[in-house]
Amino acid sequence: MDAMVQENKLVNVLHPAALSSVATGDYISMKNYQHVSFIVSVGALTTGSLLQVKEAKDASATSATVIDPGHYWVSGTSPSDTMTKTSTASSATAITTANKTYTIELNGSQLSDDFDWVTLYVASSTASSMLTGAVAVL
Fold this sequence. Notes:
Structural class: mainly beta
Number of helices: 1
Radius of gyration: 14 Å
Strand content: over 45%
Low-confidence stretches: none
Number of strands: 12
Order of helices and strands: HEEEEEEEEEEEE
Shape: globular
Strand order of the largest sheet: 1-12-4-10-7-8
Helix content: under 10%
Mean pLDDT: 87
Distance between the termini: 18 Å
């Protein structure tokens, strides 16, 4: 059996950081992929944030717009191997609890025509930092 990194492409989309304002992750191309899983780890936070997926026409974020993945998965009490499927609200994943793992799944067929690039966007954050980082598995 091959290692995960030999079967999938792993991309560090949101570098681990203490976010206290809006943040846009690195855009990644889905041109040669049919699916992406964004795995977001959230540590300490005060009141939470909104996490969105954006699509664009290129790595420079041309015509970037929010896309609704339809749902996301959130872990139980940390550490946990239990994930709960939750519908997105207004195309956003509400991050409201510290020490959770959020997984957002997106199929290439959900992208608009001529849009091959995706990223994560932290639409808002609290005045005190929200510790987070995200990896995309293609």
